[in-house]
Amino acid sequence: MAATVRRTSCNLCEAICGVLVTVEDGRVTDVRGDEADPLSRGHICPKAVALKDLQEDPDRLTTPVRRTRDGWEPIGWDEAYTLVADRLTAIQREHGRNAVAVYLGNPNVHSLGAMTHMPTALRLLRTRNRFSATSVDQLPHMLASYLLYGHQLMVPVADIDRTSYLLMLGANPLASNGSMMTAPGFGRRLKEIRRRGGRVVVIDPRRTETAAVADEHHFVRPGTDAAFLLALIHQVIADGNARPAAYVDGLAAVTEAVAEWTPERAAAATGIPAEAIRRIAAEFAGADRAACYGRVGVSTQQFGVVCQWAVQVLNIITGNLDRPGGTMIPRPAVDTLRGIGRGHVGVWKSRVRGLPEFGGELPVSELAEEILTPGDGQIRALVTVAGNPVLSTPNGRKLDEGLAGLDFLVAVDPYINETTRHADVILPPTPPLERDHYDLTFHQLAVRNTARWNEAVLPRPAEARHDWEIFRDLGLELLRRMPRSRQKVIAGVRLRLSPRRVVDLGLRIGPYRLSLRKLRKSPGGIDLGPLQPALPGALRTPGKRIDLAQQSVLDDLARLSSASVASGNDGELLLIGRRHLRSNNSWMHNSARLVKGKPRHQLLMNPADLAGRSLTDGELVEVTSAAGALTVEVAESNDMMPGVVSLPHGFGHGLPGVRLGVAGQVAGASVNDVTDDAETDAVGGTAVLNGVPVRVTSARGRA
Ligand SMILES: Nc1nc2c(c(=O)[nH]1)N[C@H]1C(S)=C(S)[C@@H](COP(=O)(O)OP(=O)(O)OC[C@H]3O[C@@H](n4cnc5c(=O)[nH]c(N)nc54)[C@H](O)[C@@H]3O)O[C@H]1N2
Ligand SMILES: Nc1nc2c(c(=O)[nH]1)N[C@H]1C(S)=C(S)[C@@H](COP(=O)(O)OP(=O)(O)OC[C@H]3O[C@@H](n4cnc5c(=O)[nH]c(N)nc54)[C@H](O)[C@@H]3O)O[C@H]1N2
Ligand code: SF4
Ligand SMILES: [Mo]
Fold this sequence. Notes:
- By secondary structure, the chain is of the alpha/beta class.
- Among the domains are: 46 residues, Phosphorylase Kinase, domain 1; 265 residues, Rossmann fold; 133 residues, Barwin-like endoglucanases.
- It contains 24 helices and 30 strands.
- The protein has a 7-stranded mixed β-sheet with strand order 5-4-19-18-17-6-7, with helices on one face.
- A hairpin with a 6-residue loop joins strand 15 and strand 16.
- Helix 8 crosses helix 11, helix 8 runs parallel beside helix 13 and helix 10 crosses helix 11.
């Protein structure tokens, strides 16, 4: 049979690269970058080949399975939906609505069908115990956007293709391919900044792959970036360089709040020299187009919200918000902001710790205790969708214990992994190449306005179901058990609309008045041009004004002011995370081609810290924290800031019952066995995953 080349995109990460997939005899024989894609311009990374591996993975489930006394047995879809709906309904009837909880993992935002159908189906459960990967990730970005711009997803992105000064904190796009900023070929775009005579500055406790291609890199003591950012704001104001737009309020309050954050004070906290802070402030304010961007390293830390607020304030007061080369609000062909609510804070609080919800979700750091703490409202059943919280949320061991004791767990997931091994029923959706895709999430965060519809590359086997079909059918099954109501009718209509219809409608009412038919005529995607100024008109705040003086954030500055610097105390080290190009959170280690080569799971440590503990490169060490302990190999690295160690998340696949043939052989421990579920950001409840105090000792002589 002849080979055919199909155009699609890779949706494994936020870069949404256009790819060309060659299919022969129903099998993928080649995956390469699509030069014609107006956003990715041919870029791909090693993970693109994993699209084929996911397709062909013998461990991937294709039909529902049910737990039995001695393993798993396949069951039919209808039987599975009935079973799940019966159990969830019964548990809610007996113990109340909140007894059923939901955890939504990262790949949901990469799946069209999950985006269109999952929220409607799961809203039928009407539980307040909703959790997701947001609170181990981008919650501070969303909260800062909600507070400043009036919508949780109105996140300005750095206009990287036109900027002349990019200041990056806690981001390593050369490994991650960029996040909360869709910019495929990030490395190439960084080079272009420098070729234009611009400057790239990186702040990171590790000299990363990104730092290596920047003009300037500074180590920063983990968890202290807020002090650095406040000092930049302080200095910009002191230099008379603060010139916010006419629709911005609150500069006086900010000036007062940052008064104490002199460069000297910030230098003492962060380890970045005061003269460098002064110079960066002057260069940033003086550049004709500058953008500051902070990502996961400054979100999932003690002062994540202060950091993300400060990043915005810096961009705003230097006049860089909403100007080409500064930070801008994308305008996608389907208006995502319209589909997702603007957000809310503290409408309800968690039962045990009393933390406020944000956008309808509670911090996932609380999930384990909400399961394990007896009493009214205790969680007894859980629905997980595309998530592996045992490996990806703090104190995963405690959660693991909680999951083992649930009355019922249903997972929508293609794998039996560390989390889903506890499931009673697993409902596996089709893999990426078998489904249609339009990116509802990442065009909203992209550095250029483009649109692209992808037809499924391969047909779905008769017995398989798309994620939207799973949520449609499960949703309808739940509806059958509910009393008649208007909401019920609306939900039924929504569930029956196909994703195609939803996208077509969204395109038609969107800002470019496109349609699915028009998009399908350009299978490589269409270019809608560079980002355009949109403020203050696009603001969703009252009076379309930005108020910098957000009380919840200003209140947290007092905590920052009195925060002690933990590192160095009695030989403690500060633990941070990292990512690698050939890995993806916890779930892509089952591709032999992706995980081959040198190991990537070790604890990186500066040679001086090794020597100080009489440790040698390669030996097994024990890492202990307030929350737990783990054992892993240590690797010497001159790229680590002294006093800081780095361990990637998503490893540690050796747990019993996991059915991941290749990943099971991948060495490494789960960093979230030592991160602490008790430590959350005071403003938003995000987990503190970076800057965790740990002790590292030799594991010699221990089994
Ligand atoms: N210590 C530490 N912890 C971290 C981080 C860190 O930097 N440090 N990073 C955090 C971040 S940013 C994130 S986003 C989270 C990720 O945390 P999670 O979202 O909980 O975990 P993933 O590893 O992304 O798990 C993805 C799951 O989805 C399944 N899956 C894959 N594709 C699909 C699909 O199309 N449909 C369905 N239904 N399932 C699918 C996989 O089999 C897997 O079980 O981890 C967080 N945890
Ligand atoms: N290959 C690959 N790509 C991915 C993923 C993956 O697992 N693998 N995951 C995807 C997901 S879910 C996300 S959210 C994105 C994340 O995208 P990025 O934010 O770019 O993620 P990281 O590569 O972890 O970079 C975080 C950086 O923060 C640094 N850091 C840690 N603590 C601190 C601190 O206190 N201060 C400062 N300034 N820096 C600190 C770390 O050293 C690290 O270099 O990546 C996405 N892309
Ligand atoms: S950067 Fe890699 S994983 Fe991300 S979309 Fe592109 S090819 Fe896929
Ligand atoms: Mo993430």
